[in-house]
């Protein structure tokens, strides 16, 4: 009779030990799954996938200070293309220059007003002149704030009878401003 009790007690201990082992394994497996899922989510938050023309492109997140030279060069190029690319159409000129002026301070507005007052844009329209710009390089000095830039570009003035090429060198300073729909960069 006591042997039966001993067997039941031994069987109960085995079942209890096996159950504890299964519970410990489940807790460890759940903990490992949580750890891996959090690390995967953290890794995915550093990546952005962009769909362009049916192709998925991967972009990586980084600190703003890592991108200052790239964003600043693009900002300067965008301003120059909008401000100096002119077609003999008053609406196109006004549209491009307005977009360019959102990217600059009042010094660009003063230059625009001077050119407008001297009938520069009227001459482009009446002479059927197109003006394009090719930005060769942009140098940014991010050591001091505001950031100093120098832009080297080639300006092509296309008339009905000739094409003139001019070298264009501009300098200025970039300062941080808040982003907006009209100025998506921080400058």
Explain what the structure shows.
The strands form two sheets. The protein has a three-stranded antiparallel beta sheet with strand order 3-4-5, covered by helices on one side. The model has no long low-confidence stretch (mean pLDDT 88). Helix 2 runs antiparallel to helix 3. Helices cover 52% and strands 26% of the residues. It contains five helices and five strands; from the N terminus they run H-E-E-H-H-H-H-E-E-E. It has helices at residues 2-45, 64-84, 90-102, 106-117, 120-126; strands spanning 47-52, 55-60, 130-141, 147-158, 163-174. By secondary structure, it is of the alpha+beta class. The protein is rod-shaped, with a radius of gyration of 33 Å.
Report the radius of gyration as a whole number of Å: 33 Å
**Order of strands across the main sheet:** 3-4-5
Provide the β-strand percentage band: 25-35%
What general form does the structure show? rod-shaped
Helix-and-strand structural type: alpha+beta
- What's the count of strands? 5
SSE layout:
Layout: H1 2-45, E1 47-52, E2 55-60, H2 64-84, H3 90-102, H4 106-117, H5 120-126, E3 130-141, E4 147-158, E5 163-174
Antiparallel strand pairs: 1-2, 3-4, 4-5
Helix pairs in contact: 2-3
Give short descriptive properties of this protein.
187 residues, alpha+beta, two-stranded antiparallel sheet, 5 helices, 52% helix
Describe the structure concisely for a colleague.
By secondary structure, the protein is α+β, with helices and mostly antiparallel strands.
